[in-house]
Give the backbone structure.
Amino acid sequence: MILREIQELIVTSLNLPDMTADDVDPDQRLFDGDGLGLDSIDALELGVALQERFKLNLKGRTEEVREHFETARSLANFVESELASPA
Protein backbone atom coordinates (compact mmCIF):
# COMPACT_ATOMS: atom_id res chain seq x y z
CA MET A 1 0.00 0.00 0.00
CA ILE A 2 1.51 3.28 -1.10
CA LEU A 3 0.16 5.26 1.86
CA ARG A 4 2.06 3.01 4.27
CA GLU A 5 5.23 3.37 2.18
CA ILE A 6 4.85 7.16 2.27
CA GLN A 7 4.46 7.10 6.06
CA GLU A 8 7.60 4.96 6.38
CA LEU A 9 9.48 7.19 3.94
CA ILE A 10 8.61 10.28 5.98
CA VAL A 11 10.06 8.71 9.12
CA THR A 12 13.17 7.21 7.53
CA SER A 13 14.13 9.88 4.99
CA LEU A 14 13.66 12.70 7.51
CA ASN A 15 15.42 10.78 10.27
CA LEU A 16 12.63 11.05 12.83
CA PRO A 17 13.96 8.60 15.46
CA ASP A 18 11.17 9.19 17.96
CA MET A 19 8.48 8.27 15.43
CA THR A 20 7.26 5.20 13.60
CA ALA A 21 5.16 5.04 10.45
CA ASP A 22 2.14 4.44 12.69
CA ASP A 23 2.73 7.84 14.29
CA VAL A 24 2.27 9.63 10.96
CA ASP A 25 -1.45 10.41 10.73
CA PRO A 26 -2.38 10.13 7.04
CA ASP A 27 -4.45 13.32 7.26
CA GLN A 28 -2.16 15.39 9.48
CA ARG A 29 -0.65 18.40 7.78
CA LEU A 30 3.04 17.89 7.14
CA PHE A 31 4.21 21.52 7.11
CA ASP A 32 1.74 23.25 9.40
CA GLY A 33 2.66 24.21 12.94
CA ASP A 34 -0.27 22.06 14.09
CA GLY A 35 0.98 19.12 12.03
CA LEU A 36 4.40 17.52 11.84
CA GLY A 37 5.97 20.94 11.47
CA LEU A 38 8.30 19.99 8.63
CA ASP A 39 10.28 22.75 6.90
CA SER A 40 11.50 23.45 3.36
CA ILE A 41 14.65 21.36 3.83
CA ASP A 42 12.46 18.44 4.90
CA ALA A 43 10.36 18.97 1.77
CA LEU A 44 13.47 18.74 -0.41
CA GLU A 45 14.68 15.60 1.35
CA LEU A 46 11.25 14.01 1.11
CA GLY A 47 11.01 14.93 -2.57
CA VAL A 48 14.36 13.28 -3.30
CA ALA A 49 13.30 10.18 -1.35
CA LEU A 50 10.05 9.99 -3.33
CA GLN A 51 11.92 10.30 -6.61
CA GLU A 52 14.33 7.54 -5.64
CA ARG A 53 11.78 5.16 -4.14
CA PHE A 54 9.08 5.48 -6.80
CA LYS A 55 11.28 6.48 -9.78
CA LEU A 56 9.34 9.73 -10.22
CA ASN A 57 10.57 12.68 -12.24
CA LEU A 58 9.70 15.81 -10.26
CA LYS A 59 12.36 18.09 -11.72
CA GLY A 60 10.96 21.39 -12.96
CA ARG A 61 7.56 20.66 -11.44
CA THR A 62 7.99 22.39 -8.08
CA GLU A 63 4.84 24.51 -8.18
CA GLU A 64 2.74 21.71 -9.63
CA VAL A 65 3.93 19.19 -7.05
CA ARG A 66 3.94 21.46 -3.97
CA GLU A 67 0.18 21.17 -3.40
CA HIS A 68 0.49 17.39 -3.03
CA PHE A 69 2.84 17.70 -0.05
CA GLU A 70 0.03 18.70 2.31
CA THR A 71 -0.52 15.33 4.00
CA ALA A 72 0.78 11.77 3.75
CA ARG A 73 -2.53 10.82 2.12
CA SER A 74 -2.29 13.57 -0.52
CA LEU A 75 1.28 12.46 -1.27
CA ALA A 76 0.13 8.85 -1.62
CA ASN A 77 -2.67 9.91 -3.98
CA PHE A 78 -0.18 11.91 -6.04
CA VAL A 79 2.29 9.02 -6.26
CA GLU A 80 -0.49 6.60 -7.23
CA SER A 81 -1.65 8.93 -10.01
CA GLU A 82 1.93 9.42 -11.24
CA LEU A 83 2.57 5.69 -11.31
CA ALA A 84 -0.71 5.07 -13.16
CA SER A 85 -0.09 7.67 -15.86
CA PRO A 86 1.81 6.69 -18.98
CA ALA A 87 5.37 7.94 -19.20
Q: What stands out?
A: The chain has one domain: 2-84. The radius of gyration is 12 Å.
